[in-house]
From TrEMBL:
InterPro entries: ABATE, ABATE_dom_sf, Znf_CGNR
Coiled coil: none
Domain Zinc finger CGNR: 126-168
Phylogenetic classification of the source organism: Bacteria, Bacillati, Actinomycetota, Actinomycetes, Propionibacteriales
Pfam families in the record: ABATE (PF07336), zf-CGNR (PF11706)
Name of this chain's protein: CGNR zinc finger domain-containing protein
Domain of life: Bacteria
Length: 174
């Protein structure tokens, strides 16, 4: 089980527009075995999870360690994870839920277990909210020096170009 991948998938889940089952299926494009199981109830539960999880990323971005830890602990209490050892692919690995779990239960479980492990291994300030206005996407910072500020290269480039233009405008006489 790759906990960093689960944490990054948690950020992707938080950023995903989950308006309907088709949007959830689009989000799960790399996991076709889950796409056919998606329901309206999964979408509703995942939208609720998005609302509950965002404050954890915001607390991390603000350096609020207690907010991150308390927020994740509260979510873990509300959504207990029952990891299981599986050997269905010919090797032993961990699944976050039983085969009978819904898509939402599986994704929430992966999300919380990934974030909990990441926070314990790398620290509680490794989650962030994009610094490029007006973007509000979230990200997981796994950089060695904890320097990530943007959700994507696109936002980073846009912010850098805007800063460059502002510097040029300040230097150029009107």
């Amino acid at each position: 089980m790759d906990f960093i991948r689960y944490a990054e998938q948690s950020a992707a889940l938080l950023n995903a527009p989950l308006d309907d089952v088709e949007a959830l299926r689009d989000h799960l494009a790399s996991r076709p075995w889950l796409q056919e199981q998606c329901t309206d109830r999964d979408c509703m539960l995942l939208r609720k999870h998005q609302r509950e999880l965002r404050p954890v990323f915001e607390a991390s971005a603000a350096g609020d360690v207690a907010g991150v830890v308390d927020g994740l602990n509260e979510l873990m209490a509300r959504h207990p994870v029952s990891p299981r050892i599986s050997d269905h692919d010919g090797h032993l690995h961990v699944h976050v839920a039983s085969r009978s779990a819904s898509v939402a239960e599986l994704l929430v479980g992966e999300s919380l277990l990934g974030l909990m492990t990441l926070v314990c291994d790398l620290g509680p300030t490794r989650l962030g909210v994009c610094s490029a206005a007006p973007c509000r996407q979230v990200y997981v910072d796994t950089s060695p020096n904890q320097s990530r500020r943007y959700c994507s290269d696109r936002c980073s480039s846009r912010a850098n170009v805007a800063a460059y233009r502002a510097r040029q405008k300040a230097v150029t006489p009107a």
